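Repro:
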Amino acid sequence: MAFLLGTGLCAAQTATPPAGDYIYERGSGQLRVKADGHFDITTIGPNAHTCELDGAIVRGKAKIDDTACVVSFAVNADKVQVSTNGADQCRDNCGVRASFEGTYTRPAPGCTDKAVATTRQTFKRQYDAKDYAAARSTLAPVLSGCDATLDWITKGWLRNDLALTQFKLGDRAGCLKTLQPLAEDAALTDDGVKENYPPADADIYLPVVRASRTNLKLCRG
């Protein structure tokens, strides 16, 4: 077991990540790396606080502007671990509640922002045409296969869309299962949601909660 653990640790190498887009934890941001090693990071934390920074990666490290902040990039397969040297200036690019340190994952081909948007458009056409079986087959793989890189609001809307489709197909049990992760918040009043979430988060989440309440009532009969 010790040998296997050591092998896993050694797999992560400080290096310039391959060019492409990587999604931050829980879909809350993005790392973009260009072929020449230039990068930019944008993340969003609670209450819409953000981080924004950019620079050039040289041998797995980037010095941010004329500060003491150094950002490191450790590559392991399709993931990039971003960390800093702890300099106070590394916080200068972020709001109080935001952070950019952590794991960024290269999304699967069907899980990029563009691919998800295209899938949702296809789903809507099928749903509007009342081809509910095809609509379910189109949307369900996004929830199951893209969970690690979807942001929480998009995920909430996808759950509601899929649940309503399942209801149309007479699958009430499937509908309730799909909405289960949203059921606790749906049981709250609007004021309860506002008490549990920072103001900006509550504003964008309340429409999801309200849709969840309606669809849960439908599926419960």
